[in-house]
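Structure ticket #2291
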Amino acid sequence: MKYFARALQEAWHHWPALLLAILCSLGVAALWGANIAAIFPIIETTLHGESLQSWNQKRLAAAQQSLKNHEEQIRTLRQKTASTNEAAAKREADFQLDLLESQQQIDRASVYSAERIQPYIVRYMPAKPFPTVVLIACLVAFATAVKQFLMLCNSMLVAFVSQSIARDMRGRLFDKALSLDRPAFNCQGVSGFTAHITHTTDMLATGLTNFYGGAVTEPLRIMACLGGAWVISWRLTLASLICSPIAAFLILFLNRKIRAISLGILNRSMGFHHVMLEVFNSLLTVHANTMEDFERDRFRQSTTHIRRVAMKANFYHSLSSPVTELLGMGILCTGVIVSGYLVINQETHILGIPMSDAPLSVSAVTVFFAMLIGASDPLRKLSSVITGVNNGMAAAGILYPILEMKPFLQETAAPQTLPKAHQRIEFRDIHFTYDGIQKVLEAVNLNVERGDHLAIVGPNGGGKSTLVNLLCRFYDPQQGEVSIDGVSLRDVTLRDLRRRIALVTQQTELFNETILHNIRYGRWDATEEEIMAAAKLARADEFITSFPEGYQTLVGPNGQRLSGGQRQRIALARAFLRNAEILILDEATSQIDVESERLIHEALADFGNDRTLIMITHRESTLSLATRIVRADHGKLEIVPVAKAA
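Resolution: structure written out below.
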């Protein structure tokens, strides 16, 4: 609940729209009650064949006469009380006196209201019965049109606020995903963030819409109707609400169930997104291994779980509607029975309990029934509102803890600045494990001097890429320190560190944009001339200019419209454009043909002057660029003489 309360509080950043929406809700509730109350003058005019002017005059005369009678009775009773000394008689007289004084107050209120509205009735209402009915009917129709307009305004204003919060939440989730390091990001994964940015934020928006829309408007409509019934007879209204506590308990019980099931649906949807994205991202592997049937079964299994939970949620949601409807019918039926007994028998008490100060008229009871019926409609709609709010609460309970996640890699509050040109990279007594069980690096020590062209070779799983991950500070070692010129990477901002590094990996990542966009990603303020120069240096300009659209060619999702070699050369051009002092190549030439590789080696030889070059490779030809070679095997490093690299 506290997280949903935060969402409601954040929604008040758009307070002008919410305030207008609430005012519209108040207008809707007032007009809803007024339209029902308009039944009373229509009934009085129709039943008695008189205008409202004459009806109010009679009402005023009757109230004045009743007030006069009650004043006389009070005077007589006080004289009788003063002349008796019996305690029991005094108590009875005091009780009757209190009752008469309360009736006197009612008479005075009736006289006051009749006198106040009489000039307006005379001025604005017709003097004949039928025109009076026509005028009231037209006013009701006009009020209904205004009510519908206010409901539309309320709906649009609340939708604007909820969609603004959803947009803001999506942006914050996206920002959080970008700010997290790899271990923290993997707690949710691509599928988790995808599900939350799309589905979970929609649930939160629905919850906010239901709260500021239905959860405000519907209770106000109920209050307007019950308030009108209260004016007619507050005791009768209380008697009609005798079933409310039981229904309220059932609604609270269903709320807890729906909220818990909503959380289950969200968790299942993460699994559903996980399977879907995993298969789509590995579609070539699925086809190559003819695993289509297996993945179909796995996908159907995940959606079956969602269906099971959704059916359970639908059951409780469907159950909440009859509960609220039964509450409305309980209120109505109780009111019908009690008021029917009072009118038919012209009584003011039931089982000795006073229900009204005077016998109710048929017109008053009819309006009382209409008020109870008017309260039952928003009660029925309130069930779907409650379900939507519960879904929003479940969504908020997932989203806000994600926004509060902290990266495992914490940046120091007082960062140091690296020298403009580094002189030495040092790995000192490094111990590292990804899972806390299997050690990837153990007691590793390595120095890399400025201008070194270091080749790291060795079997898969030996720790080659881990060294690069630690240098880029994608991870921190569990023990030991990585430093540049004696400054620990933990004491440097990630931005300061990574702007000095250009990284090209074997799994080339390209955006579904133009070639120009993908190369410029290395340095966004670069000119087109600089981009083309970097492409020429990476030996990519030739195939780029052969495309009809040249550098404006769209590469497709992750560069699918290009060959593997072309993708790697664009990635190299991006790294060259970055113009970083440390260039890291992680099997970056593995998919390039021999001739292209030779040209790129020439470019690297030129580009690598006065730059530190770290190459992870299995290719013997790449070793010709190395001034030093290190072999990584089972978490240990071994210096390999360059002459014996082959």
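Closing remark: The longest strand covers residues 439-449.
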